[in-house]
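Look over both lines:
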Amino acid sequence: MVLAVGEQALLYPLRGWADMNLPWFAPHPSKAGESWLAFCFGMSTEGMILTLLGGLAGAAAGPGLLGVAARPRDLLRQVLRRALPLLVVALVTAALILVTSLVLMLPWPLVFGLLGLASPALVVDRTGPFAAVGRSFRLAGRNLRGAGIRLGGYFSWALIRIVLGLGGSYALELWLDHGQAAYTLAMIAIWAVVDAVAYASLACIDAVLYLEVRMRVEGLDVAIGRLRRLGRPVDLASSVILGAAVR
C-alpha cells in the first residue's frame, strides 16, 4: 500500500504536466508526447514495485512449495538480507522498461514479460542481481511461455483496475464535483488501493510462475522428489536443484 501511494504521489505532477486528468488519466490529444512520457514513467514505476514485491512473494513461495511453514517475520528477514541486490534488480527493471518504451515503444511488453522472474530468482536461488535478471530472461524466454503468462496476468489485472477505478469515480460523483480537492484526493486514494491489490496479486503470480517454469524447464519437481526419496534436505538454491536436467 505504501508503494502504491508513493507511486501516485510521484506520478501525479507528471500527469498534470501532460494534462492527463482524473478519473483515469487519459492521454491528452494535444500532448501526445508528454502523455506517452508520463505513461512510460508509470510503467517503469510499476515494474519497480512488482520487482520489490516479487522478492517478498518469492521468499514465501519456496517454503510453500516444500510444504514448510514459514513465519512472516522470517520471510521478511530473508528479504531484508537481499534488500540491496533486490533494489538493484528493481532499478535495472525500471530502467529497461523505461528505455524500451521510450525509444522502441512496441517491444516494451516483451521486455516487461521477460523481467518478471528476476526478483523470485534473486531471493529463491540467492544469486546476484544481474545473474537473476539473466536467469529471468532465459526462463521466461523459453518458448516465451513464461513471458506470455506474465503479460496475460498483467493485462487482465489492468482491465480489472480500470473497471474498479471508474466504478469508484462514478460513486464519488454522486457527492463530489470533479473540480473539488476532495474529489482529487479521494480518487487518488481509490487508485492507490486498487493498484495495491493488483500489485500484490501480480507479485504472487510472478513467484508461482517462477517455480512452475523451473519445473517445466529444469525438472525442479523431479529433483525435489529425488532428494526426498534419498532422505536429503531440500534447498531450492543448492547446486543439485539448480543443476537438474533440462527437459
